[in-house]
Design a protein that fits this description.
By secondary structure, the protein is α/β, with parallel strands linked by helices. It contains 16 helices and 22 strands. The structure holds nicotinamide-adenine-dinucleotide. The site of nicotinamide-adenine-dinucleotide has 30 residues, from helix 8 and helix 9.
């Protein structure tokens, strides 16, 4: 159980004398062998037999046993959120802000522990957990704390902002803590209460966040964290009481949720998959673009909804870009994610590894040329996959059309800006896009014509709590972050 909230969880390491040791870092964070459900501000025992094991994808060793909530426990979590909502929505906005500030501060104070836990459970390199996931999660709470007492100015025409009510929030495994913060912070700022379900393979940081909520004495029931897989998720979707479902995950499951909700009056936000284009014009700063391509597809092993997985390069610089990319990719260190020098850790689960491997085979079978890159021996255990790119890819090829959600890039070329834009938009998705050029007018012209929710110019995978994020078409609807993200949690 997570009933150890009052015990010291981290052996404090003297940073002045500390020298890096992956083993030391991992050893310094205690992982409870058993976790319950966080309902009504208390830890609730799992039902007998209703548990699952979460693994360390780098070693395939068990990390902890986690509860699988059933329909009755979903109802208990909902009931506690409904009861808490009556008070929370009337809590003065300045008071709500204080809780959000405290949560943000505690995330910062416990940052090292959260980063280690995230890397152990998800496999993402510790450098990314430390420098991106955990600080950005804190940033979301800081940002939304500032909004609590300013909501009446948030949305034009809304002078009496009211919360939607009780929100079911279902999140994926690629950014577990960040997705939890991304969902909870705006919901709480607007006076909603929540039942949050992390993904079955990465529940640990959301559960640790629940401990933080206890520490800051967030009123019981305002946030409930329940664990489990698709069965628990379906029970949340089928529960008739929720006023909102905020879902981040695959397009397939997103569609199933939409079908299940078709006849209900319920607010929905869908953050789904992507197959995003990264367009490099011949006049781009090529060395800078290479870094952006690498960040765009190998960040978090490519398990990023907005990954720049389709590289479109102007034909006259294709050879130069591919040569530089190959050289850069062969310097990417693949291996132990607890090592701060690792660039590419394991894939999150065996299922996902096998899915990625099946796409590598399809790519070769359909005639593209595969290059497997990366530096370092692969460990003998763990779900590792080397960063890979394909050249000679036809736009109609499976690897150019379907979301792989792994460290695999499809490289294609174009001759004219028209062709670049039509190829970029030729996808059922519309989440993000990148444009690399040194001409300002080309940036604006291209960005205006791309059908993507987020467009980065001379950069990729840049995030900020103040910026709205979300997609078009099969990438979903609704925005998270910034002023637009608040709209999704207000009744209007
Ligand atoms: P997934 O859809 O399999 O699972 C996501 C969550 O939904 C998990 O918590 C899972 O337990 C739950 N779930 C599964 N089946 C369900 C059902 N029938 N009803 C209710 N809940 C159910 O996705 P995943 O494999 O965890 O994540 C990868 C996907 O998420 C990718 O497609 C990626 O693009 C997408 N994603 C999108 C964004 C975004 O902001 N657009 C961000 C991150 C990930």
């Amino acid at each position: 159980m997570s009933g150890h909230a009052t015990l010291p969880l981290v052996a404090i390491v003297d940073t002045a004398t500390w020298t890096y040791s992956p083993a030391l870092e991992a050893a310094s964070v205690a992982v409870s062998p058993k976790h319950g459900l966080f309902i009504g501000g208390r830890w609730v025992e799992p039902r007998r037999g209703a548990t699952a094991i979460t693994l360390n994808p780098a070693t395939e060793e068990p990390l902890s046993t986690v509860a699988e909530a059933d329909a009755a426990q979903v109802t208990a979590a909902f009931d506690s959120a409904r009861t808490a909502q009556r008070r929370w929505m009337r809590t003065r906005p300045q008071e709500r802000a204080k809780y959000l500030f405290r949560i943000a501060r505690r995330i910062q104070e416990r940052a090292r522990e959260l980063a280690v836990l995230e890397t152990l459970d998800s496999g993402k390199p510790i450098r990314e957990s430390r420098e991106f996931d955990v600080p950005t999660a804190a940033q979301h709470f800081f940002h939304h704390a500032g909004w609590c007492d300013k909501l009446r100015y948030a949305i034009p025409g809304v002078s009496d902002p009211r919360p939607i009510g009780v929100c079911a929030q279902i999140i994926p495994w690629n950014f577990p803590l960040l997705m939890a913060a991304w969902k909870l912070a705006p919901a709480l700022a607007c006076g909603n209460t929540c039942v949050l379900k992390p993904a079955e393979t990465t529940p640990l940081t959301a559960l640790r966040l629940a401990e933080i909520l206890q520490e800051v004495e967030l009123p019981p029931g305002v946030v409930n964290v329940i664990t489990g897989g698709p069965t628990t998720g379906r029970a949340m979707v089928e529960h008739p009481g929720f006023d909102k479902i905020a879902f981040t995950g695959s397009t397939e499951v997103g569609k199933a949720i939409l079908r299940a909700c078709a006849t209900r009056r319920i607010s929905l936000t869908m953050e789904l998959g992507g197959k995003s284009p990264n367009i490099v014009f011949a006049d781009a700063p090529i060395d800078q673009a290479i870094e952006g391509i690498v960040d765009g597809i190998w960040f978090n092993q490519g398990q990023v909804c907005c990954a720049g997985s389709r590289l479109l390069v102007e034909e006259s610089v294709l050879d130069e870009v591919v040569a530089k990319l190959r050289a850069r990719m062969n310097r990417l260190r693949v291996g132990d994610p607890m090592d701060k020098n690792t660039d590419v850790g394991p894939i999150n689960s065996r299922v996902q590894l096998e899915r990625v491997q099946s796409y590598l085979k399809i790519g070769v079978d359909e005639g593209a040329a595969m290059e497997i890159c990366g530096n370092g021996e692969l460990p003998s255990r763990g779900y590792f996959c080397r960063p890979t790119f394909f050249t000679g890819v036809q736009p109609s090829a499976t690897i150019a059309r379907e979301e792989i959600f792994g460290p695999v890039l499809a490289v294609m070329s174009f001759r004219t800006p028209e062709e670049a834009i039509s190829r970029a938009n030729n996808t059922p998705y519309g989440l993000s896009a990148g444009v690399w050029t040194s001409k300002g007018s080309k940036i604006f012209d291209t960005a205006r014509r791309l059908k993507a929710g987020v467009i980065w110019c001379n950069g990729f995978n840049l995030f900020d709590a103040a910026s709205p994020f979300g997609g078009f078409k099969e990438s979903g609807f609704g925005r998270e972050g910034g002023r637009h993200g608040l709209r999704a949690y207000l009744s209007h």
